[in-house]
Amino acid sequence: MPAQFDITELHWLLDVVQSIDVGVVVMDRDYQIDVWNSFMENHSGLGADEVAGRTLFDVFPEIERNWFSRKVETAVMLGTRAFTIWEQRPNLVHFKSYQPITGLADEMYQNVTILPLRSTSGVSDHVCLIIYDVTSVAVNKRQLESANNQLQELALRDGLTGLLNRRYWEQCLEQEFSRHQRYEHPASLLMFDIDHFKNFNDTYGHQLGDEVIREVARLTRLFARETDFAGRYGGEEFAVLLPDTPEDGAYQFAERLRKAIAALKIPHENMILHVTISLGVAELNDAMLNHTQLIEAADKALYQSKENGRNRTSVAEND
Predict the structure, then answer these.
(1) Fold for domain 7-142?
(2) Domain residue spans in the chain?
(3) What reaction gets catalysed by this protein (predicted)?
(4) What is the C-alpha to C-alpha distance for residues 17 and 143, in angstroms, rounded to an integer?
(5) I need a surface site. Which of 8, 33, 38, 65 has the fewest CB within 10 A?
(6) Is the pTM of this model over 0.70?
(7) Cα angle for residues 160, 203, 192 (degrees, 5° grid)
(8) Between the ranges 18-32, 142-156, 288-302, where is the mean pLDDT highest?
(9) What CATH architecture applies to the domain 157-315?
(10) Which DSSP string corresponds to 253-294?
(11) Which residues pair with 280 in a beta bridge?
């Protein structure tokens, strides 16, 4: 024999609904609000008496009505719960974030459960929304993703210059070579190194030598486009891959960079020092069988610049 219903249990249930740290909203099939717990009051700034009888869309105009109505109607029709998660939609309603993570989230991230409520006759005539504050979880995940992305980025970069490291840069060159073979887009490569860098290091020390390498890298990044691939090839040698750039455009780029580096002023004690670079330029062509042949062509042009007096740009001859 079933236990007799005790009306006091309803009061206990209402106390629980008011005290739990999730939002609870009960509304009828016209989306008019019947229940509005203290979580909703605290975060919306609206009391239960202020929202009673108003529709959810009136109180929260930011809710996308067509999307939300479809979610609710599907849940009611199937008699099952429906969910929204913050990864797909950061929040259902715009509540400020009061989590102790100042500056990392202005608005509350939310997971939401849509729960059809059946009357004693078995008809789903009300719907309950349960809104969970998952801001801490979301922010922690975003921070972890950001940290992982930064670590991945660091793994692709040279530690001294911030340019692409040789391994990753060569992967980019391989991909560009494949793209050229498929679409016949032009691409050029320039390789350069700092003139007489060993003597500079021996005379002024490795610390100043590192500073020179960083300054050369800074100017290289400054002149390179977002679509270019600038890397440290090794020691004082650098390489810049210029997609969609024919030989003459690469030569102009090389000359602008050469002149800018020659104009660098490097203070050291009571002196102002200067450095120059020698460059080689080569354009990708159909006779090349692999990406290493483009490197060899640009490198050969670089050594022509060195043999002809340095501080100049040479263009590879097409074989």
Answers:
(1) Beta-Lactamase (3.30.450)
(2) 7-142, 157-315
(3) 2 GTP = 3',3'-c-di-GMP + 2 diphosphate
(4) 33
(5) 8
(6) no
(7) 50
(8) 288-302
(9) 2-Layer Sandwich (3.30)
(10) HHHHHHHHHHT--EEETTEEE---EEEEEEE--TT--SHHHH
(11) 191, 314
